[in-house]
Design a protein that fits this description.
The protein is mainly alpha-helical. The protein contains seven helices and no strands.
């Protein structure tokens, strides 16, 4: 079992507040200040959790460069007070960056939760147990 450092605990808190401000900014009709603050807190939390070098390595990998460009471009558009366009660009970059992760997350959700109408559409051929 790995021990969680104090920096990682701070990072989890920053990411939690970042998600809160992003959600609150969307609920208040794309308030640009809340969305910008949420984006900054989310990126700072990620840096605290995995470190500055790993964060830079994640965003600037060769096969994820286009997704990172759109994600960070969306963050900069939100910071320039274009929240709706910025969130759309940021969402597109998020999907591009994490598209290899989505099938694994879907398989995990389907294996851990028994929902009959979902398992009819996505039959699982192998068990993750």
């Amino acid at each position: 079992m790995m021990a969680i450092t104090e920096f990682q605990k701070i990072g989890v808190g920053l990411m939690g507040f970042g998600l809160f401000f992003l959600l609150f900014g969307v609920l208040l009709y794309f308030d640009s200040v809340l969305l910008a603050f949420g984006n900054i807190l989310l990126l700072a939390g990620l840096m605290f959790i995995i470190g500055l070098r790993r964060t830079a390595h994640f965003f600037f990998q060769r096969h994820k460069f286009r997704g990172s460009f759109f994600f960070l471009g969306g963050v900069s558009l939100v910071l320039c007070r274009w929240p709706i366009i910025g969130m759309l660009v940021e969402s597109y970059g998020f999907v591009l960056s994490f598209r290899s992760f989505f099938p694994m997350a879907l398989a995990f959700m389907l294996s851990s939760v028994n929902i009959p109408f979902l398992t009819a559409f996505f039959p699982s051929s192998s068990s993750m147990v």
